[in-house]
Design brief:
heterodimer; A: 478 residues; alpha+beta; Dna Ligase, domain 1; 5-stranded mixed β-sheet; globular; B: 315 residues; mainly alpha; 2 domains; 13 helices; 73% helix; 0% strand
Chain lengths: 478, 315
């Protein structure tokens, strides 16, 4: 069995001097007990299983067509109980602050008046919905489901990379990856107390119903999907099935008498909570984008009157802006009076004159991103870009400096990944999922994404990344 | 349930049933054609040409070579051609697309079965199978896959409205297609004389029963006697054989009665059709001419479909 340790980044599994880290020893021993032939056989088994089950996602603009499987690497990523406790506490703190921030932005705007965040940074964004000002969502919750991306630097510190407060995706793969690994390598689980993830759909449904405006009756929650052509359609359908909720498209819903109804074979049926997996700009052609065919005309009015809950609430996008990110440590202090429990990546904000000057000078060392995009689209990896690309990008930047932020390149940690018969280091990140209902709960682990190209830093599924099962170990009572 | 989901399940049922029908027709016609091609080529030709009448918009390409058996071009065209709207490939793809669009309304087992069956078929299509033994093997495999899908539906689906719409599509497709097959085949069969070639004559009747999945059920009822005056009423009126028109009409009627909500125009159309098939007498087919009756079944199926679409799918 060949293991290739990482020599440049933090290796999750191997300590450069001492061999496998304590929590990886049993896994390494188990893997080494297999012959190469057996491992290859299991890997084939796993691939067939993915295809047969149709666990797929869509890459926009790819010729291969609608469905591609999301590559899965069977070497699990292991997080010890003590490390997870810190991450979990840090995430709960952060999501609490994010939700307070959004409430503030749409209510009193104290943080803007106190200049904790530059007002123009918030008020000029597309994600800031002026129409929703002074509107309070049920239970004052905007961020029912948050997916926060976490990376580890070359010292192994966990750092928050970005917050996804609109419709973070990937949780279905967390559940399916676990199923898959159970089937393909049951041996792995015999020596580890791995915390289960199976409960997520139930917790999600609880979270959604907690916000239902008609709590006394039997509230109905639905999952709103753009449809089969959306890249995360598998997940929408998976979650609806697992929650026992209706999966609806915009055309299945209709607004009448200040309420939202589904069109059913037995007439109209009232809907109380919409877990929307449609971008908020497309939710309602009367309130936001007029050309939207995915939305429900009049939906936002019903929401305004408090007759339907929308998760995540419209307007929540102001918080996952990449420029707001730079102010998160200050916002945590401002709202909670606490120091942030989890660190984050130093960020230069194009809006600040000094920062922008620095960005211009140091393009070749920085990772530059547009504030509005996600999924690894429209970013520039300075250290790897050709001169021409940098110049072209800079020309764009000068037109609207406020739309850009920059961060130093972080050496993402790496993890052994099975490639062509060897265990090679590949860079990884982590997306935990946080549910904000009666309490804030974090799914143990989350989605570990892995960059399958050697040396690559880009782990997004839309950019050819894969994923791993992520284990959080239960604390042993010793 | 959601109208869109009901619509997709209904079509999934129709396309699954259609896939199974075409697969069976191909297997049976291939047998018949191989058996008769040397004896009476025109009869074998006619059997294949009937497919073009049963599936009106279908088209078939040229045979692979001058030595290819008659069946070769038809097998390729009706089995694997993705562009032929009545190929197994096309129908199963549609069934799967509908299944995929309402995956949350299906059980995992059902989606797995339909997905695997289609993927195997699609792989055959990509390999470009042309020789009849390989095509036959693949057809049999597809047939098994279809039955495992139907079995998964039977064993895992809860009997709610989703189930009813799926079964409604299946039963209505079966009634419609059975009536079309009989309408196409009966005139020529009825006109032929047993004296001309006794063996061939009975082979044709046996093939008709097999084509409608009813040979064994018929034998159970009447033994090995193949009398046209027994075969046709059996295919039309038998209350127990799942492929008879009466049985199919009853299945449609039951589904409609159980779907929640008020009964609509489809119930009336199907109720009358079913009554006619139950309480038949010599006036049902004067002079042994079943053509008007079969035309009536085809029309009623079409009207029932329109009525369903109006009541449940376009709300």
């Amino acid at each position: 069995m060949k293991w290739v340790p990482d020599t440049s980044a933090y290796d999750e599994t191997f300590d450069r001097a001492a061999g496998p880290r304590p929590h990886y020893r049993a896994l390494v021993t188990t893997l080494e007990s297999f012959t190469q032939t057996e491992i290859d056989r299991r890997e084939r088994l796993q691939k067939i299983s993915l295809v047969d089950q149709g666990i797929t996602f869509t890459v926009y603009g790819e010729k291969e067509g609608l469905e591609r499987i999301f590559p899965f690497d069977f070497v699990p990523r292991i997080i010890p109980a003590r490390e997870w406790e810190r991450i979990e506490a840090g995430l709960i703190q952060r999501v609490t602050a994010l939700n307070l921030f959004i409430n503030d932005v749409y209510q009193e705007q104290k943080c803007l008046r106190d200049k904790v965040v530059p007002p123009e940074l918030v008020l000029s964004r597309r994600e800031y919905k002026r129409a929703l000002l002074r509107l309070t969502p049920p239970r004052q919750i905007y961020t029912h489901v948050v997916g926060t991306d976490i990376i580890r630097n070359d010292r192994g510190d966990y750092l928050i990379l970005e917050d996804n407060c609109r419709c973070p995706s990937g949780v279905s793969y967390v559940l399916e990856n676990r199923n898959l690994l159970h089937r393909v390598f049951p041996e792995f689980f015999t020596r580890y107390p791995v915390r289960p993830v199976r409960e997520y759909p139930r917790l999600l449904l609880d979270t959604l119903l907690w916000s239902a405006p008609r709590a006394s009756e039997n509230p109905v929650a639905v999952v709103l999907t753009p449809g089969i052509h959306n890249s995360a359609y598998f997940e929408h359908s998976f979650l609806a099935r697992e929650m026992g909720a209706f999966l609806v498209q915009g055309r299945d819903l209709v607004v009448e008498d200040s309420a939202v109804y589904m069109r059913t074979t037995a007439g109209r049926q009232r809907v109380d909570v919409i877990y929307r997996r449609v971008d908020e700009d497309f939710l309602d052609p009367l309130a936001f984008r007029r050309d939207s065919l995915l939305g429900v005309p009049g939906l936002v009015n019903v929401y305004r009157e408090g007759n339907v809950a929308i998760a995540n609430a419209p307007g929540a996008g102001v918080a996952d802006d990449k420029a707001v990110y730079a102010y998160m440590p200050a916002l945590i202090k401002y709202y909670l009076g606490q120091e942030p429990l989890l660190g984050q990546v130093p960020t230069y904000v194009g809006l600040r004159r000094d920062d922008f000057a620095y960005m211009r000078e140091h393009m070749a060392e920085l990772v530059v991103k547009t504030t509005g995009d996600s999924g690894g689209y429209n970013m520039l990896m300075g250290p790897f870009a050709a001169r021409r690309e940098v110049d072209a990008y800079l020309a764009q930047m000068k037109k609207a400096p406020g739309n850009y932020i920059a961060q130093p390149l972080i050496e993402l940690s790496s993890h052994p990944t099975y490639v062509d018969g060897r265990f090679e280091p590949r860079r990884i990140d982590l997306r935990p999922f946080i549910l904000y209902g009666e309490t804030i709960r974090v799914l143990p682990g989350g989605l570990t994404r892995v960059a399958l190209r050697p040396g690559s830093y880009v782990v997004n599924s839309s950019q050819g990344g894969g994923s791993k099962d992520t284990w959080v170990l239960a604390a042993r009572n010793t | 349930m959601l109208s869109r989901v009901a619509d997709a399940l209904y079509w999934m049922g129709r396309y699954l049933e259609r896939s199974e029908n075409i697969t069976r027709l191909l297997l049976v016609t291939e047998d018949f054609s191989t058996e008769t091609q040397g004896l009476a080529e025109q009869v074998a030709q006619a059997a294949w040409k009937d497919l073009l009448a049963i599936f009106p918009a279908a088209q078939v390409g040229a045979p692979a070579s001058a030595f290819a058996p008659l069946s070769q071009a038809y097998l390729v065209g009706f089995f694997l051609d993705p562009a032929n709207p009545y190929s197994v490939h096309y129908s199963l793809r549609k069934a799967r697309e509908n299944a995929r669009s309402v995956r949350e309304a299906l059980t995992v087992e059902v989606f797995l079965a339909i997905n695997e069956t289609f993927r195997a078929l699609d792989a055959d299509a990509r390999r470009g199978l042309v020789d009849p033994p390989a095509l036959r093997d693949a057809l049999s495999a597809a047939h098994k896959g279809l039955f495992s899908t139907i079995g998964a539906i039977e064993h895992t689906f809860t009997r709610d409205d989703s189930w009813l719409f799926l079964k409604l599509g299946e039963s209505l497709e079966r009634v419609y297609r059975t009536a079309l097959i009989l309408r196409t085949k009966l005139p020529a069969l009825g006109a032929s004389e047993p004296r001309a070639d006794v063996a061939l004559y009975y082979t044709q009747w046996r093939t008709l029963l097999r084509a409608l999945g009813s040979l064994e059920n018929y034998r159970r009822a009447y033994g090995a006697r193949l009398e046209p005056q027994l075969v046709v009423p059996f295919l039309l009126f038998d209350p127990h054989s799942p492929r008879s028109l009466r049985f199919g009409a009853e299945a449609v009627k039951r589904c409609l009665e159980r779907i929640s909500g008020e009964p609509g125009p489809a119930s009336r159309i199907i109720g009358r059709l079913h009554a006619g098939l139950c309480y038949h007498d010599e006036r049902t087919a004067p002079g042994g001419d079943y053509a008007p009756l079969l035309d009536g079944v085809v029309d009623a199926s079409g009207q029932a479909h329109d009525a369903l679409a109006g009541q449940y799918f376009a709300t």
